[in-house]
Amino acid sequence: MTTVAAYAAPAAKAPLERTTIERRAVREHDVLIDIHFAGICHSDIHQVREGWGEAIFPMVPGHEIAGVVSEVGPGVTKFAVGDRVGVGCMVDSCRECENCRAGREQYCTGGNVMTYNGVGKDGEVTYGGYSEKVVVDENFVVRIPDALSLDVAAPLLCAGITVYSPLRHWNAGPGKKVAVLGMGGLGHMAVKIAHAMGAEVTVLSQSLRKKDDGLRLGADHYYATSDPKTFEELRGSFDLIVSTVSAPLDFGAFLSLLRTDGALVNVGAPEEPISLNLFSLIGGRKTLAGSSIGGIRETQEMLDFCAEHNLGAEIELIAASEINEAYERVLASDVRYRFVIDASTI
Ligand SMILES: [Zn+2]
Ligand SMILES: [Zn+2]
User: Where does the record place the Enoyl reductase (ER) domain (predicted)?
Assistant: First the structure.
């Protein structure tokens, strides 16, 4: 076991503070990673504040981890000391179910192990990336290509893969009109990735406040959803809408923006159930769908794609002592577009 410094929430809704945690000794297939950067995801805040139900405390959040391998177990074949690597939302899964065998570990029916606020197969609570080091099975570690700096790569491990997976699955590409709903941590990566895939990209945001950024990052069009004219003008326009927002939406209104056979895919979710008139799906054979992160193979594919197209996240680098302040700013949508913790300050 190794004692490492970390930032943890000692109890639900409590501010995060510096502490120490134990990392397990490196096992046969483990790699020890010196964490260089950890992104702050909105879901870290949900979990620290128990917005998604009962959680485990103390909690060390962080599932957008970028670092360098500093030790490998004797059975490790995929990584060597010095490799630049990342860890996302999962650190294990059953590895046997239909989904795991198909590389869709995020939909593991046997139960996958979350990077933090989870319990590993050994019964130990998992602690995330707001720390100096982490020990992870090599099968849940991905390689960060040299073309990506580790700081701008960190947010790709959750925000990047969460939007890449549905864009791929629903065939974003040349000739396809894709709308990105919400221009935040996930939305700004969706714009970059959909543009790089060759799709015609439209941002649908509450206001035009971030329009210049949206166009600079690759959007072809930018509309305010607060303007009713947007819904008249864009009626029947899109093959795919990726919704990154977690506020309640008028789904009927957004479904009216799809072409025949179009899909509205949710990667953000409101806490309350929605009500929907199903005629908004029946007319035009439309799909209302959801999508969760991506599998390990797909996460590697996403990193390789982002490296090839030079797509890092837009980040604000912070010291660990600024985490609590950063949380408040995330809640106020006052970040362009992802906070990343410099782990050397932990
Ligand atoms: Zn996340
Ligand atoms: Zn499984």
Answer: 14-341
